[in-house]
Amino acid sequence: MKKLLIIFSTLAALIAISACSNGEPAEIVPQKLELTITESRAAQDVNGFGIEFFREISLVKPTNVLVSPLSAAAATSMLANGLDDGCAAQITGTLGCESLDALNSLNSKMLKVLPYVDPAVTIGLANGAWYQKGYTLRPEFQNTLTDTYATDIFAANIPTEETRTDINRWVNAKTKGLITNFLEQKLDVFNNLFLVNALYLSAPWSKPFKESNTTTEVFHGLYHESKVEMMHREGDDLIYIDEFEKFSAVRRSFGNGKFHITMILPAEDVDIKSFIKDCDFTSVLSGKYSEALLNLSFPKFKIEPEEMKITEVLQSLGMEFLADPVDTRFFTEAATATFNIMQKATIEFSEKEVKAAAATGVAMQGANRAPIPITVTFDRPFVFFINEATSGTCLFAGKVVDL
Predict the structure, then answer these.
(1) CA–CA separation, 252 and 238 (whole Å)
(2) If we measure between CA atoms, which residue out of 145, 15, 9, 123 comes closest to residue 70?
(3) Protein fold of 211-276+290-297
(4) Which one of 10, 118, 130, 244 is separated from 253 by 20 to 30 angstroms, measured CA to CA?
(5) Regarding predicted confidence, which is higher, 31 or 303?
């Protein structure tokens, strides 16, 4: 029985948005991504986190899995800037980085440069923050969000349907319609801060499949067999053969070759769960791939957005503070809070390209309730006055007893 494992592998896989205001792609002048020694080390560390994040979720979720380690890392990096040193250290430690400064520097560099690495690939990363009206963001935290993470910041009445609609509209726009209903329910009255990271990818194959070669084939799944549209291509591609014959890995590039995908196929007699548990993905992704003539067949499919609660996964990987209320530094007002973190992701493979998007949300639940709207319904007799504000001059006064 054949199982298919797909892993994205780009340099740090950090993505930034690139689009014109009229919806057409901007003309991009290619830039070289140059990282400092500290940033390069941080990128490698975050990639290590990404593998363990993927592994942990795959081992507990028996069905299809699509996660964005990048989005989770970006969202929790923003979060770290509003926590005390101990909690921030748990986030940087889980992400594998030596310091929060290194993490912030890497995120800032990627935001500024990565959109221009490959003009043929449209990639995007956007950050948003909604905080409860009546609170004041601490200047240091707000400056980091704005200057380092290019965050869109909104004051809002968090536990309202209007705010849920605004957040969903923002995510929908940043993911170009791939994630339309990020928050399925409005946030509760204890939420006073909501951080969001959104990603988008549109990547044409460097060597596309021909639509005329696509046929209907059987996919031998873990739980059942199904008929799928199978894309076919014969030509040169990069391949890595495991010396113990436990798997084969094919690497295909996008656009001008600055981004690629590594597709790993375990041997027929290898259980997918055991493979994911034991595989040294770091070695596979950094291994030597050789060009060979391949007769490649790959399914044409889409994974729909599905909400995943990732708080406990991040906690098990090292963010232990997520289990208990902690003091925060988001606001000028003292605030103790717990956090709920969720993610949605989607991807679609076709003969010409791959499109994908993800969004990660961090909901801060404070000890104090956000203000509950006071309901006032004028459905009985009432009085009104119309006055000029400065002098108090009464222009009209009235009483209504029947309508």
Answers:
(1) 7
(2) 15
(3) Alpha-1-antitrypsin; domain 1 (2.30.39)
(4) 244
(5) 303
